[in-house]
Recover the amino acids of this structure.
């Protein structure tokens, strides 16, 4: 089993220390960190810790964080900066993945989906494309039973992505004490009508 995922327009590689500089630049961008890190600026040490935690999760749980890069493609859906091969070192345009997360209202630890994109790639459907690949992998390869998403109410675009993915407002925790909305997708109800992952082997 390979942990490299491919979609129509993206290649997703597990994050590694080779991505450190690109991740630091991406995550410290003011429009990205506003929703992903509650507007806090992450440090180089914290980026290293996030990468190390992801590598541990891949080793023990089978999932973690993926760096998003443009896939080699042609036609109207191709990204302008598409490069042959799409490998670490090519332009990083975002991150998507899964991590452990303390569930709302004391409901234990969940597997949470996370994603971020460079602002100049917003509005192209890439976050949904990457997230669907991650959910396909979580449910079909790893066998995760439920994946949740914590959505900042000030970020309606993320809520729209959750709905596009077939995630539902969580019946046990529609809103947490921080005002966030919680969504969930269950393996048994995974209703993605099209499978965008081209290869996971």
């Amino acid at each position: 089993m390979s942990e490299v995922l491919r979609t129509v327009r993206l290649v997703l590689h597990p994050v590694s220390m080779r991505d450190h500089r690109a991740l630091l630049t991406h995550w410290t961008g003011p429009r990205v960190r506003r929703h992903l890190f509650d507007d806090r600026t992450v440090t180089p040490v914290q980026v290293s810790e996030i990468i190390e935690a992801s590598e541990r999760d891949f080793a023990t749980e089978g999932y973690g964080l993926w760096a998003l890069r443009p896939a080699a493609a042609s036609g109207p859906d191709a990204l302008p900066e598409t490069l042959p091969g799409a490998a670490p070192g090519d332009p990083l345009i975002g991150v998507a993945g899964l991590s452990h997360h303390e569930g709302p209202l004391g409901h234990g630890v969940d597997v949470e989906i996370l994603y971020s994109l460079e602002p100049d790639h917003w509005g192209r459907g890439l976050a949904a494309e990457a997230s669907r690949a991650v959910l396909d992998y979580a449910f079909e390869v790893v066998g995760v039973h439920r994946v949740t998403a914590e959505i900042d109410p000030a970020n309606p675009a993320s809520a729209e992505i959750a709905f596009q993915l077939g995630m539902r407002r969580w019946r046990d925790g529609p809103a947490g004490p921080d005002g966030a909305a919680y969504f969930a997708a269950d393996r048994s109800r995974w209703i993605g009508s099209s499978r965008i992952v081209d290869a996971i082997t």
Remarks:
- Confidence is low (pLDDT under 50) at residues 80-88, 171-176, 191-201.
- The chain has five helices and eight strands.
- The beta strands are 5-6, 10-14, 65-70, 94-102, 109-117, 146-151, 168-169, 181-186.
